UniProtKB/TrEMBL annotation:
Name by which UniProt lists this protein: beta-mannosidase
A GO biological-process term: glycoprotein catabolic process
Gene3D superfamilies on file: Galactose-binding domain-like, Glycosidases, Immunoglobulins
Reaction(s) this enzyme catalyzes, per UniProt: Hydrolysis of terminal, non-reducing beta-D-mannose residues in beta-D-mannosides
A Pfam family per the record: Glyco_hydro_2_C
Source organism of this protein record: Kitasatospora gansuensis
Family: Belongs to the glycosyl hydrolase 2 family.
Enzyme class: hydrolase
Listed GO MF terms: beta-mannosidase activity
């Protein structure tokens, strides 16, 4: 088999719909893989959809039909006895594929690939290949009319076509309804037989790793007769014969003393190379290699404990028999134009996840099945993958043609992703069952299908058939009994959104869930990202460009209400940016620490969300330009293996030690009640003695737990950056002092170093380095200092700046500033300034 990419010489032009006059008849060079927005942008014909108010100005693109064309110079083998297929790995979405004017296929699914026999249409010399796409908005609306309107969130009927749902807009994403050849396209030439797919399913038999390779073959019009498969797993080799005409077989390989693959924080991630070579006979029994396949596997077992207990229905992942608390994040597509997401971006985001002590990434159902790079990197980094099937916040017709598309895409996704040890859970979809119960769908549906059979019959049957080694969940949230409400704290998975939408974030403590698959709080992108994307003058929370980049319903109102009771109303846009960023970090950390303190009652906290598709005010920890928001630093602290947290309990204020490491935690820990001026008002020593993967709680004595003046006292448990703090009053009601500090900034080999010494109690000190240099990344943030304590911030950047710029009061930020004003004190020092 030989493969030739068809990626050069493409053009795109409008062929129907609401075509602007300046584009009529204009052919634009096209990049494949790619999409029409990126092609028009590269040609200078549209502004960047991600900037300012451009999104709305470009809505017309989704109502235009677009034709991609290229020529293929063909001097390949004669068609007699040779198969030539056009293989398209991703067409977005409703498309007609033509070769030399003859239709090869009509497609309706972004989430699957197509193999189209083309030998009969190819001719020697020049051949014209064309793919004509129906406008993405037009296609959805036409399908809505054909299938019958069904309820969904947001403006457009994304639930009628098998396309990335968030392409039609979400409460964190733009409406960039694009089309294009978004994954590679190629010609494959082969004879006799080929490998259609390989599903390596693993299990353990004692310390022996067992892999069963399910090999599906395709046969040519002139088959090759008996075939042979040569299989390698690591250093082991085996061989299997395939009788003539047989299209599938299973090859078992047993690996003695197999090294186990573990999630991050539980062990190493060894993987084994797997090779499959297909050999046949041609030309009077001449042996010929026909095709091959290569992949990597990891040996591990995975199970889901949902056996009812005295508290309800647990939801606990077990890997290699060990219970795993899911320190998770939800993943949305890496860009609103997925064609420009490559391995480099995946690696950056997934490393940011692991560096924040995350061990699980949930691929959300309104996006895509990601590329091999994504899952390979998760394998390498030890990040567990929870994979949604692609249904989100909508009802879906169970009739044709949608049903057939769902079946084909699901079977392909399960087959393609089966080698990856990181993949540990299949989930039927996101909030669809919850929506049916609570979002007034039933009257609108009038008894019509809405997706229930997908989640409870069709998808679980596909998983049972193709991948019985992994557990399946009908949806999230889900309570494991159709008679129950799907979003109950006592049963299965829960999504907690009343906190963001209606309640103060301290209400997280009201919830005692078994597993939280979604919860979160909004905050703006970093300053450098926001000011690159929005150029309003003046910049205000309600200025036009800012509002375009705030997609949540009443998002800014919820941000303001979320600050109330915690911080004063901001007086400037810079203060608004810092206050809402800080409040986001505090809110999510508050939730995480509460949920972790409940272990093993609660066995997962999956934050909404890790990343963004564009520069936007959202729930993300890493913004659309890849910069870490304050929330990211809060995740890293709250998700660390060993966590001390102070929580109110029935018996009083308590210290909870969460030991999610594999070793016992034994330590003498100082506990102090301290005045803001540094005076120790009460002190004791606590003996921490916690077994591996467990939690222990100690009630503080009254002398430590009850303040003399709650407006100016804190409790401090432990030492250093990992200590736990309890402030008796919120900042808005506390007597926070001005942030008096000595600060020194200096040049170091990797950038700059800022050393700060506090002369007063300074809460949540952060250095917003991107305000000085766009590429600057600081190693720590949200540091709280008592008088006399010091902290060091190392800034990595390639920029050359004046070191003192990092000491500007708009860069070196604290919660104190929001209460008292910037506050300057001290004298200049060499290399920097005191503020």
């Amino acid at each position: 088999m030989t493969a030739t990419g068809v990626h050069e010489g493409w053009t795109v032009h409008a062929v129907g719909g609401e075509v602007p006059a300046h584009l009529a008849g204009v052919r634009v060079p096209a990049t494949v893989p790619g999409c029409v927005h990126l092609d028009l942008l590269a040609a200078g014909l549209i502004p960047d959809p991600h900037l300012d108010e451009n999104e709305g100005e470009l809505a017309w693109i989704g109502r235009v039909d677009w034709r991609y064309e290229t020529t293929i110079d063909w001097d390949g083998p004669d068609a007699d006895g040779t198969e030539v297929d056009l293989v398209a790995l991703g067409l977005d979405t409703v498309a007609t594929v033509e070769l030399n004017g003859t239709v090869l296929a009509r497609t309706r699914n972004m989430h699957r690939s197509y193999r189209l026999p083309a030998a009969h249409l190819l001719r020697s010399g020049s051949n014209v290949l064309a793919v004509t796409f129906t406008g993405a908005l037009t296609a959805a609306e036409q399908a809505d009319g054909d299938l019958g309107a069904r309820p969904h969130v947001n403006r457009h009927p994304y639930n009628t076509v098998r396309k990335m749902a968030c392409d039609y807009g979400w409460d964190w994403g733009p409406e960039t309804t694009t089309v294009g050849i978004w994954r590679p396209i190629r010609l494959e030439t082969w004879r006799g037989a080929g490998i259609e797919s390989v599903r390596p399913l693993v299990e353990m038999d004692g310390d022996t790793g067992v892999v069963r390779l399910h090999v599906e073959l395709r046969q040519a019009r002139q088959p090759a007769g008996p075939l042979r498969l040569d299989v390698s797993v690591g250093d082991l080799r085996t061989r299997a014969e395939v009788p003539a005409g047989q299209s599938s077989t299973v090859v078992e390989v047993r690996v003695p003393h197999a090294r186990l693959w573990w999630p991050h924080g539980y062990g190493e991630q060894p993987r084994y190379d797997v090779g499959v070579q297909l050999t046949g006979h041609q030309n009077h029994d001449e042996e010929v290699k026909l095709d091959d396949w290569h992949g990597r596997i990891g040996f591990r077992t995975v199970a889901l404990d949902t056996a009812p207990d005295e508290d309800g229905t647990p939801f606990t992942l077990l890997v290699n028999g060990e219970r795993v608390f899911a320190r998770g994040v939800n993943w949305v597509p890496g860009d609103s134009f997925p064609a420009r997401v490559g391995r480099e971006l995946y690696a950056a985001r997934l490393n940011q996840a692991r560096d924040a002590n995350v061990n699980l990434v949930r691929v959300w159902g309104g996006g895509i099945y990601e590329s091999e790079d994504f899952y390979e990197l998760c394998d390498e980094l030890g990040l567990l993958v929870w994979q949604d099937f692609l249904f989100a916040c909508a009802s879906y017709a169970e009739e044709e043609p949608l049903r057939g598309e769902v079946v084909e895409e699901a079977r392909e996704a399960v087959t393609r992703l089966s080698p990856h040890p990181s993949l540990v859970l299949w989930n039927g979809g996101n909030e669809n069952i919850w929506g049916y119960h609570d979002w007034d769908w039933q009257g609108e549906l009038g008894g019509r299908s809405w997706g229930w059979r997908y989640y409870t019959e069709i998808l679980p049957a596909i998983v049972a058939d193709l991948d019985p080694t992994r557990p399946y969940l009908p949806g999230s949230p889900y309570s494991f009994d159709p008679a129950r409400h799907p979003n109950l704290p006592d049963h299965g998975t829960m999504h907690i959104w009343d906190v963001w939408n209606q309640l103060d974030y301290t209400e997280y403590r009201r919830h005692l869930p078994r597993f939280v698959a979604e919860f979160g709080f909004q905050g703006p992108p970093t300053w450098a990202t926001l000011t690159r994307a929005v150029h309003d003058e003046p910049m205000r929370p309600e200025s036009p460009g800012i509002l375009v980049h705030q997609k949540a319903e009443d998002g800014n109102g919820k941000l303001a209400r979320g600050l109330a009771g915690h911080l004063p109303p901001p007086g400037t846009f810079a203060d608004w940016h810092w206050a809402t960023s800080l409040n986001q970090a505090r809110a999510v950390a508050f939730g995480i620490e509460h949920f972790r303190s409940l272990m093993p009652l609660c066995m997962g906290a999956v934050v909404w969300q890790l990343n963004d598709v564009w520069p936007v005010i959202s729930w993300s920890a890493v913004d659309g330009d890849g910069r870490c928001k304050p929330l990211w630093y809060a995740l890293r602290r709250s998700f660390r293996d060993r966590l001390l947290t102070i929580q109110p309990r029935e018996d009083g204020l308590s210290v909870v030690a969460v030991n999610d490491s594999g070793l016992p935690w034994q330590e003498e820990v100082p506990v102090r009640r301290v005045d803001f001026d540094g005076t120790v008002l009460a002190a004791a020593t606590m003996r921490v003695d916690v077994t591996a993967r467990s939690v222990a709680t100690w009630t503080l004595p009254r002398s430590l737990a009850v303040p003399d003046d709650p407006a100016r006292e804190i409790v401090v448990v432990g030492t250093g950056a990992d200590r736990a703090l309890w402030q008796f009053r919120e900042d808005v009601d506390a007597k926070l002092p001005e942030p008096r500090m000595s600060a020194r900034s200096e040049v170091i080999a990797t950038g700059y170093r800022v050393t700060v010494t506090a002369h007063a109690y300074v809460r949540d000190l952060a250095l917003l380095a991107d305000r000085v240099a766009g590429d600057a990344h600081v190693d720590t943030a949200l540091v709280t200092l008592l008088p006399g304590e010091s902290a060091t911030f190392d800034i990595r950047t390639g920029a050359t700046v004046e070191p003192g710029e990092f000491l500007d009061p708009l860069v070196l930020r604290s919660a104190n500033q929001l209460v008292t004003g910037p506050g300057r004190a001290g004298v200049l020092e060499a290399g920097g300034a005191n503020w």
